[in-house]
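Q: How do we represent a protein-ligand complex in a form that can be generated token by token?
A: Start from the inputs.
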Amino acid sequence: MPEIVTSATPAASIDARVWVKSLDFKDFVVSGARIWKVEEAALDPLSSFLHVRDGRIVAEGAAARAADSRVPRIGLPGRVVVPGLIDAHVHLELDPELNTPAQQLAVPEEDRLEAMAGRAAAMLAAGITTARDCGGGAHREHRLRDSIRARPQGGPRLLCCGQPLTTFGGHCSFWGGEVETPADIDRMIAQQVEAGSDWIKVIATGGIFTPGSRARDAQFDLSLLRSVVESARRRGREVAAHCHGSDGIANALRAGVRTIEHASFAGPAGFGTALDDSLMREMAEAESWVSPTVNAGWGRRIEDAEGEPTDFFQRLSTALRAQRAHGIRFIASTDAGIPGVFHHDLVAGLLAFERFAGLRPVDVLRCATSEAATALGIADETGRLEEGLSADFLVLGKDPLEDLRALNDPEFVVFRGDWLDRAARGSVPPARDSG
Ligand SMILES: [Zn+2]
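Then emit the structure tokens for the protein with zinc ion bound:
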């Protein structure tokens, strides 16, 4: 086994790529880097240690430093290490360059899996080590998830929802999950679980992507949504609910879904025009999670050509800040796959989220790491750099708690203890400008 000695070389002059490319250690200690603990609002100025064995963190701090001296040390002087990022809402099946469901459905079958694999690889290259897929039509993303389990370099850890449950002709009905009665619901959920779904997705309001659907209208009543949650829970699954209007948000919340997707408080005048204080209070009291899908597309709509805040920014910013003021818990998500929102572009979404919700970088980073892991029920697997968890982390040149742009183009992405450097990551699409 080659010996790697902690280097004291300044970050700017070290070419760690040369040696990390040849790294296939199952057992190593990271040293010299400042390692972010999610509880801390600012990065500790002192460097620390992480001991990784067989893909898991086996010790941190002083305990990692005290590892057997035969364990190779990987020196990362001047670098910052943060947990791998989590995008809580993507659609691997959707091609962001296509604009309508009809175009999406027309993609030839033989091209689909390859395109999905390419999206997953680009996500991992961009530092996304976990994502929840919030719906597709044929469980292809489940196959992708399983192939990544066998070959972690292929993409992030995936949690898959499968076919979203919706009303006949309702939003996302083109994916085949139409249900009408409690018996339909139970049968459809059984099918999703049988197909290997980790989560259940239900469409509680209309959406903008489906012709004939209206985002602010509720789709299911409270009792049917309760049937969804009960049927899912009986099978050990939690529910994510797509919700734009407040009636749908209220139904989903009272039915006991675990994550409320979008929560845009859509009214007749558009998103963010039907804020409901008492409902927000109820959401905060229920400790439900909001996954607001703030993405790169939002980032392009902050200012108009004259540099003035857009109407869209003002409405959605007000809605997100009101939720924050009520103490509602957020997780980071993008809805990647919808038109113009690329799967690897989470960081642009995080930059937009910071602006729209008025959050500090540390809050945004928690939403994309520890908070998302807790909401998704995988806090014992990822989201923090702690003993016992998967070794999922990013090696950065700068401190993202000072400027989230430090998350763009990580020097290394480590997933389940496997190191991917920029060269190995290959043709990474450039991170998009959020402005
Ligand atoms: Zn979605």
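The chain has two domains: 11-84+384-422, 85-375. The mean pLDDT is 91.
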